[in-house]
Amino acid sequence: MVDYMLLDGKMLSNKIKNELKAEFAKLDPKPKLVVILVGDDPASKLYIQSKQKACEEVGVISETILLDSTITEEQLVLEIERLNNDPTVHGILVQLPLPKHLNETLIINTISDKKDVDGFHIYNKGRLINNLETIVPATPLGVLTLLKEYNIEIKGKHAVVIGCSNIVGRPMAALLLNHDATVTICHRYTENLKQYTLMADIIVCAVGKPNLITADMVKEGAVIIDVGINRLGKKVVGDVDFENVKDKASAITPVPGGVGPMTIAMLLSNLLKCYQNQ
Length: 278
Prior knowledge:
Elements: E1 5-6, H1 9-25, E2 32-38, H2 42-58, E3 61-67, H3 73-84, E4 91-94, H4 104-110, H5 122-129, H6 138-149, E5 158-162, H7 169-178, E6 182-186, H8 193-197, E7 202-205, E8 222-226, E9 230-232, E10 235-237, H9 242-245, E11 249-252, H10 259-277
Parallel strand pairs: 1-11, 2-3, 2-4, 5-6, 5-7, 7-8, 8-11
Antiparallel strand pairs: 9-10
Helix pairs in contact: 1-10, 6-7, 6-10
């Protein structure tokens, strides 16, 4: 059993937001973030409310455009292009997932790469893969910022990323590789996940499956980053069996209060970057 360090994302995100608030206060005109929500998914609405609240906290303008779930692809593209051409808008975010009839890739790549606060545009992703300066997706950037804040060595370490989504898994792997880690990506078709996790110095789990990572899958002293958010009754839990894994970890993120708050802070940081790029 090792004494673990709790990676407190809530505390760090508050520190970052205070720094951003000071930066935003110097700017005129004020930065503006526009969030587009198609349909009325309850989880998406909650996410958007937390983004709006964060914008208010740091003193930037936020606007939410609510669109009917029956909107056509053409109509949505026109709406995004209108925002691309609006000089008062500095960041655009389309809340995912979109209704099935809309082509997610097309919609995301309609957003100007200079206003792409999510970092999902193919141009920004390509720059990330090539280790060039770019807008990095907020959740992986939040994970990296946490690791750096707590002085966790990445260079030369074996990092295992579980989950290969375009939002977290893939950009996370690229970011770790850019910081000289040896990276293994595991996903739903990986056989014998445990053989990979036992070799990991750093585990980043982002699959949305409660208690997927158990104590017997983790080596003594590993760093555990839990990106999962799952509801079990009234309780919110991650992908990691926190209570049992923490005693083997050298550092671990809690859920809630770990990666979640960092995602919002990094989104605001990306908005500042977009503003400066324009």
